[in-house]
Design goal:
heterodimer, A: about 110 residues, five-stranded antiparallel beta sheet, globular, B: about 110 residues, seven-stranded mixed beta sheet, four-stranded antiparallel beta sheet
Chain lengths: ~110, ~110
């Protein structure tokens, strides 16, 4: 069974703080991992892709991947109220064909003033 | 750049009526195409994916069907809608190379009465 697990939250952080969102997955040989942001009532928007162990930074976002622990995380620095959304972790499990992704159910982030 | 169009944005249909949702992609050729459903407060459920014209794979048995009559056109259909078909329907595309992310359209919110 190919699974992607996320804490549903809500995760509440004060404005300006670092938000840490976590995701675990079931297949050790997975090669590609994605973070999507979904505002209420809107479609998911790709914000980060990561393929290698370690950190990948893009602006205020940092994705971290540890394949040995089957763990991927997203850090949001200097959190803003506009970051309040649900964050979806997605994994491309090998052998699925057609670049299919398995999504977690998402973590709701609330950034409070 | 690539864009994905999905329509209509909202739809209210009676139980037992037919359904046709359309999605088109611009700016790329031979994309992989996907249909998802997201029930209220739930994760993304992959319904169908396609790697080429008339090549459709179904992920979940149901009363829905999909077709791909042209390279960049993907259609989701039903002959008779059920109450359980309510949800947020999302079309997505990806490149064909392995490990490509998916990019979503704006979605169709379907309510069944």
């Amino acid at each position: 069974q190919k699974e992607v697990e996320q804490n549903s939250g809500p995760l509440s952080v004060p404005e300006g703080a670092i938000a840490s969102l976590n995701c675990t997955y079931s297949d050790r040989v997975s090669q590609s991992f994605f973070w999507y942001r979904q505002y209420s009532g809107k479609s998911p928007e790709l914000i980060m892709s990561i393929y290698s162990n370690g950190d990948k930074e893009d602006g205020r976002f940092t994705a971290q991947l540890n394949k040995a622990s089957q763990y991927v995380s997203l850090l949001i620095r200097d959190s803003q109220p506009s970051d309040s959304a649900t964050y979806l972790c997605a994994v491309n499990f090998p052998g699925g064909g057609g670049n299919k992704l398995t999504f977690g159910t998402g973590t709701q982030l609330k950034v409070e003033l | 750049s690539q864009t994905i169009h999905q329509w209509p944005a909202t739809l209210v249909q009676p139980v037992g009526s037919p359904l046709s949702l359309e999605c088109t992609v611009e700016g790329t050729s031979n994309p992989n195409l996907y249909w998802y459903r997201q029930a209220a407060g739930r994760g993304l459920q992959l319904l169908f994916y396609s790697i080429g014209i008339d090549q459709i794979s179904s992920e979940v048995p149901q009363n829905l069907s999909a077709s791909r009559p042209q390279d960049r056109q993907f259609i989701l259909s039903s002959k008779k809608l059920l109450l359980s078909d309510s949800g947020f329907y999302l079309c997505a595309w990806s490149g064909t190379n392995y490990n490509q992310p998916q990019h979503f359209g704006d979605g169709t919110r379907l309510s069944i009465l």
